[in-house]
Write a structure and sequence with these properties.
By secondary structure, this protein is mostly helical. It has helices at about 5-20, 20-25, 30-40, 55-60, 75-90, 100-110, 120-130, 140-180, 185-190, 200-215, 225-235, 240-255, 255-265; strands spanning about 65, 70. Helix content is about 65%, strand content about 0%. The longest helix is centred in the middle third of the chain and has 41 residues, at about 140-180.
């Protein structure tokens, strides 16, 4: 198993220099499964408990063989095995996981989900034994546990997204409140920056908008312009055009083009 990011390596060294493996495993014992769901109703609540990730734990205390030939298990793997065995004992199934199945299952979880914290894994086991993701009928199936862990990861993604959105909105509200507290009038701003008698920029925008939105005055036609239209219609040779526009002319001016010419001939 190889999880070798620089950040995880640094955290692993710090953890190894501060705690013995037994201290870490004792702090996150199987007894936590009993209270994990009440302490952490949503997965993001696990961040309140600063626990190492599986990657950090695995790197801090890797498996090795002593000079005498004795094998020391990877602490992350052995700790996870204890947590899963506690679930198996709780549900009281007759078909237990073999040592090989249990070891392979834990190795795969660490490899696939190295950034899961110890507290999150405890919460997963607590939810698993409560029947949150699946039920065991007579035997413990590693594939069923991996499927349940995948469902747990989906819940984790939703919970952290919800927390992120909540934090973002809370920050926006705090920033807005802070801005309101520190706000000054436009007159005070101009005074501080030496901008005497300067129009507020919003006033200029408002004025421009009002001008744009104001209805344009209707153009008043002069007698000369109407006369030109009337003469054009009278001289128009295309009958359809003459009839159509003459009707519009009469509706607008109250007389035919010819009548308008005759009435205003001396003007």
């Amino acid at each position: 198993m190889s999880i070798t990011t620089n950040t995880e390596q640094s955290k692993a060294i710090a953890l190894r220099n501060s705690y013995a493996p037994s201290q870490i495993t004792a702090e996150y014992s199987v007894d936590l499964q009993t209270i994990a769901m009440s302490a952490c109703p949503t997965i993001d609540c696990c961040t309140k408990i600063q626990s190492p990730t599986l990657a950090t734990l695995s790197l801090a205390y890797p498996g090795f063989e002593t000079p005498e030939g004795d094998k020391v298990e990877n602490t992350a793997i052995s700790w996870m095995q204890g947590q899963i065995l506690a679930v198996c004992n709780f549900v009281n199934v007759s078909g237990k996981l073999s040592d090989w199945q249990l070891n392979s299952l834990c190795q795969q979880i660490v490899a696939d989900y190295p950034n899961i914290t110890m507290m999150e894994f405890v919460l997963f086991c607590s939810r698993l034994r409560s029947g949150r993701y699946c039920s065991f009928y007579g035997t413990i199936d590693p594939l069923l546990i991996l499927k349940a862990f995948s469902d747990f990861m989906e819940d984790r993604k939703k919970d952290y997204w919800r927390k992120s959105e909540y934090d973002r909105k809370a920050k926006e509200e705090r920033d807005a409140e802070e801005a309101r507290k520190n706000a000054i009038s436009w007159e005070e701003y101009c005074k501080r920056h030496g901008k005497k008698d300067t129009t507020h920029p919003f006033d200029r925008i408002k004025e421009k908008f009002e001008k744009k939105a104001a209805p344009k005055p209707k153009k008043v036609e002069t007698t000369e312009e109407i006369m030109k239209q009337a003469k054009w219609l009278v001289s128009e040779t295309f009958e359809k055009v003459r009839e159509t526009y003459s009707a519009l002319f009469e509706k607008k001016h109250g007389c035919t083009p010819q009548e308008y010419i005759e009435r205003n001939a001396d003007k």
